[in-house]
Amino acid sequence: MSDQALIQDLQEAIGVEKVLTSLEDRIAYSYDGTFEQDLPDVAILPESNEDVAAILRLAQEYDVPVVPRGMASGLAAASVPFGGGIVLSLTKMNRILEIDEENHTVRVEAGAITADVEAAVEEFGLFYPPDPSSNEQSTIGGNIACNAGGPRCLKYGVTGDYVMGLTVVLADGQVLRTGGKAIKNVVGYDLNALFVGSEGTLGVITEALLRLTTKPRAVRTARAEFPALEDASRTVNAILDAGVVPATLEMMDETAITCIEEAMGLGLPLDVEAMLIIETDGSDEETVLREIETVARVCRESGAREVIIAKSEGEREQLWRARRSVSPSLARKAPNKLGEDITVPRSAIPEAVRRIKAISADYGLPIVIFGHAGDGNLHPNILFDKRNEEEWKKVQQIVGEIFQVALDLEGTLSGEHGVGTLKRPYMEQALGRLSLDVQRRIKGALDPHGILNPGKVLPGP
Ligand SMILES: Cc1cc2nc3c(=O)[nH]c(=O)nc-3n(C[C@H](O)[C@H](O)[C@H](O)COP(=O)(O)OP(=O)(O)OC[C@H]3O[C@@H](n4cnc5c(N)ncnc54)[C@H](O)[C@@H]3O)c2cc1C
Fold first, then answer.
1. CB of 325 shorter than 6 A to ligand 1
2. What pLDDT digit, counting tens, does each position of 27-83 carry?
3. Is the CB of residue 129 below 6 angstroms from any atom belonging to ligand 1?
4. What distance in angstroms lies between residue 205's CA and the mean position of ligand 1's atoms?
5. Ligand 1 pocket residue status of 150, Cβ below 6 Å
6. Is the CB of 149 under 6 A from ligand 1?
7. Measuring from atom 9 of ligand 1, which residue has the nearest CA?
8. 298 touches ligand 1 (CB under 6 Å)
9. Protein residue with its CA nearest to atom 33 in ligand 1
10. Which of 86, 305, 336, 444 could be cross-linked to 386 through a Cys-Cys bond (beta carbons 3.0 to 4.6 Å apart)?
11. Quick one: 282 and 352 in the same domain?
12. C-alpha angle 50/160/79, rounded to 5°?
């Protein structure tokens, strides 16, 4: 059957206005947060589980790929529709369905914007901790599908730690419900965990039941300046050894600091090799203050030249502005940047940083290092000009070497961005053949016709 027949059937099944076929619309759904792009044949905006089920049934009948899509802020090309097919955008399914104050849960549709969910529950004194920096440009469904993290993960964990239940439309159009409000639940396999991080390859998540906590009443933030990057890397463990688990423990190297200062003029020191931004939070002001003072002492003992503790919300915001400005500031430094997302055990951070700096020197291309140092998740960003073929070739080699550093140090390829297509070539090296074989069998069982986001996550057999 022709594409036109599929489009007509889709329009009849869910309504003409939800099926977008113009070239302009298809271009708008052709990319994500990477350099990758390809045109879908059609983009569809379902508004209910029934719509999603009808789309998947038709896709299976016509044997057409379906690429689920949230806000397309992904950094692994996981929502790019390579080779065409249907892009299924969840952005119209964005309602907050229920805030359960007593049980500390929120039920949302998958297309809800993360920041909107955070703001909605805060009105009830509740707190949704996972905080990807893209929280205003990403959806809960995308966060679950990539198991997104953020600065607060050190203390609070990643998105998957907050998923209590899911509604998932399977490849054949059946609607599966997993989990529930019971906190303890060990009945059968953990199907919530199966869909967390599945990047749209196992089913379309349409609703999520998320765990909440109470909002911390007190927060304290400090910035520590380190003349030696090595000392900053070592301090991460020293802080935890002192018995403090900060809510966030972020690191920026000197290249990052210079880029931010050139772009924003925030008065950051340009003669240090690294800065840490550390935040403690909790239910009472006294404990939180004591903890940040301990952090400041440990930083000084570990080689920090200066430690500034914010005294007001304005000062705190100023300290965070620097960290939030890293990504946009890099854009001024070079036409292109490629941000990686490796993780290593915390104790290996100094070695990882040393080796990445050496790779940067070998290839003569700047690599800016920043990230969530508290959980060993580093974002080495390579700055380059993609129009320069020689530089682009070097970037591809550098990426392979950075992954090798992570694997050598018992780390892995991604802490929060996922695999998509960009990390697929390194999957066997990272996980081994048997693990990939088990994952292919799971994929085969749930999506026997291979219509769900084909070519993502798992390398070919
Ligand atoms: C400036 C910037 C900062 C970022 N910071 C962070 C950060 O701090 N932490 C972090 O973890 N990530 C970060 N990211 C990456 C990105 O925002 C996350 O991966 C986010 O979770 C993607 O959500 P999305 O809604 O944009 O999903 P998309 O990019 O649309 O999709 C990502 C993947 O999820 C799948 N998917 C989306 N929705 C569904 C669904 N409902 N059901 C099944 N599969 C689905 C897609 O098929 C695809 O495989 C950042 C990105 C940018 C551009």
1. no
2. 999 999 998 999 999 999 999 999 999 999 999 999 999 999 999 999 999 999 999
3. no
4. 13
5. yes
6. yes
7. 132
8. no
9. 199
10. 336
11. no
12. 55
Are residue 224 and residue 313 in the same domain, yes or no? yes
| Tens of pLDDT, residues 293-302 | 999 999 999 9
Q: Residue 264: which residues within 8 A CB-CB, separation 6 or more?
A: 321, 322, 325, 329
82 shares its domain with 166 = no
- Is residue 207 in a domain? yes
Percent helix, strand, coil in the chain, to 5, is 40, 20, 40
Number of domains within the chain: 4
Q: 119-129 burial by CB neighbour count: b if 16+ within 10 A, else e?
A: ebbeeeebbbb
143 lies in some domain: yes
CA dist., res. 288 & res. 354, Å (int) = 33
What would the pLDDT profile of 15-27 be if each residue is shown by its tens digit?
A: 999 999 999 999 9
Do residue 344 and residue 404 come from a single domain?
Answer: yes
What is the domain-level CATH number for residue 390?
3.30.70.2740
Q: What is the extent of the structural domain holding 161?
A: 96-214
The reply to whether 130 and 202 lie within a common domain is: yes
Q: Which ligand 1 atom minimizes the distance to the CA of 149? A: 11
Mutational pocket test of ligand 1: of 146, 204, 375, 452, the residue with most ligand atoms within 8 Å of the beta carbon = 146
